[in-house]
Design a protein that fits this description.
The protein is α+β, with helices and mostly antiparallel strands and 112 residues long. Helix content is 21%, strand content 22%. It has a five-stranded antiparallel beta sheet, covered by helices on one side. The radius of gyration is 13 Å and the shape is globular. The chain binds guanosine-5'-monophosphate (5GP). The site of guanosine-5'-monophosphate (5GP) has 13 residues, from strand 2.
């Protein structure tokens, strides 16, 4: 079982900021911005490359919740970035689909 699944199941502690039947949002252990939250589905999906057509409702749910969590964190007006790293070239470390929600400072573009 990967580390994010263990967090979702409550086996590893994390600072959870939102959760429901389908997803969990918690603060990144190594934040890259003043606000850095990870939003994951409870179901184990290794990466965005592995989603299927039947995941359509879940993916929509994740995006809606990302916006809600960003609002909860006070980022709606100043702005924020939602990132999904997918595979080795993107630097994906944890093989469990996750959305990074980053904000609280001006973010550079393009990403490195
Ligand atoms: P990736 O590179 O896979 O897109 O991002 C993985 C993220 O998970 C990294 O930002 C890393 O800091 C974070 N992370 C890895 N292990 C843990 C953990 O045990 N707890 C928390 N809260 N974040 C973690």
């Amino acid at each position: 079982m990967n580390v994010f699944k263990k967090i979702a199941d409550g086996e590893i502690p994390a600072e959870i900021v939102y959760q429901d039947d389908h997803c969990v949002a918690f603060r990144d252990i190594n934040p890259q911005a003043p606000v850095h939250i990870l939003l994951i589905p409870r179901r184990e999906i290794p990466s965005l490359a592995r989603v299927e057509a039947s995941d359509h409702p879940l993916l929509g749910h994740l995006l809606l919740k990302a916006a809600e969590v960003a609002k909860q964190e006070g980022l709606s007006e100043t702005g924020y970035r939602v990132v999904i790293n997918c595979g080795p070239d993107a630097g994906q470390e944890v093989p469990h689909l996750h959305l990074h929600i980053l904000g609280g400072r001006r973010l550079g573009w393009p990403p490195g």
